[in-house]
User: Which sequence fits this backbone?
């Protein structure tokens, strides 16, 4: 048996739609795999009742098929489904790393990214890799159709998760089909700023690079209380705030000394909007780990 811990992730980071991703030190999924004649899946943990155990409908089923590695798979969910924190990606990433080891397939971490991305297509309809890449590789990642590039970084963040759900499919439907040239230039500049900030482990640069006027405003409308939470986070010391992935989680970058204050302010702002929430005081951390 091989057991793998795969982290929650935050995709897009504002200016890097379908390209940027970051692994979070917590929460995480823990997936155990063992060889079997036919694949079976058991799911426990947070939101387990909403996750299908049929291999054809679970993200890990596509990973099993891609690796030709039938197994009994136990998924202990620590990342809530429909959270914007890469719940489906965490399971797929952990399964890919575990099955690769179990069957000695010999893939590198980067080569496992498109394999795990096939699992994302099961839940979102698109085999995007912006969550599975950091879940496997760790740190901050930039993913293109042909490659994944990652860098270790040390950025404190707060991920505030409200007690509401936003499906990835719904969040993709509101993405604008066009953008003005001014918006494109602004987004490229912000994405470049964020990337430099990640390479330098600079929360100020990362925060300013999170700004996005194309996708984020449309997705923010799906999250009750978003503007209040955003303003409260900045007032408490956040350097940048954006929707985490498809939402509804909201991600704030900050200095380590401000992390607790930012977390409390975000939870209070959600409460003021009539929404219960939980804030994870975390940081950008490592990818999937065999435990």
Assistant:
């Amino acid at each position: 048996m091989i057991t793998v811990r795969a982290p929650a992730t935050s995709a897009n980071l504002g200016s890097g739609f379908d390209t940027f991703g970051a692994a979070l030190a917590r929460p995480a999924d823990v997936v155990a795999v063992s060889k079997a004649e036919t694949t079976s899946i058991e799911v426990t943990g947070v939101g387990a009742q909403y996750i299908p155990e049929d291999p054809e409908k679970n993200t890990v089923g596509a990973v099993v098929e891609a690796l030709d590695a039938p197994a009994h798979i136990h998924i202990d969910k620590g990342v809530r489904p429909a959270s914007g924190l890469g719940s489906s990606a965490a399971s797929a990433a952990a399964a890919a790393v575990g099955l690769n080891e179990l069957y000695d397939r010999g893939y590198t971490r980067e080569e496992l990214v498109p394999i795990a991305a096939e699992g994302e297509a099961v839940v979102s309809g698109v085999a995007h890799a912006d969550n599975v890449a950091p879940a496997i590789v760790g740190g901050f990642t930039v993913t293109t159709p042909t490659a994944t590039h990652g860098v270790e970084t040390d950025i404190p963040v707060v991920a505030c998760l409200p007690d509401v759900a936003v499906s990835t499919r719904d969040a993709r439907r509101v993405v604008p089909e066009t953008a003005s040239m001014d918006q494109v230039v602004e987004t490229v500049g912000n994405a470049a700023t964020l990337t430099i900030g990640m390479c330098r482990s600079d929360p100020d640069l990362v925060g300013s690079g999170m700004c996005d006027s194309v996708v984020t405003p449309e997705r923010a409308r799906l999250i009750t209380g978003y503007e209040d939470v955003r303003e409260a986070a900045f007032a408490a010391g956040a350097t940048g705030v954006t929707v985490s992935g498809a939402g509804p989680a909201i991600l704030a970058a900050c200095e380590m000394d401000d992390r607790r204050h930012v977390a409390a302010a975000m939870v209070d702002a959600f409460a003021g909007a009539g929404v219960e929430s939980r804030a994870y005081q975390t940081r950008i951390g490592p990818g999937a780990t065999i435990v």
Remarks:
- The chain has two domains: 2-151, 156-283.
- The two ends are 11 Å apart (CA to CA).
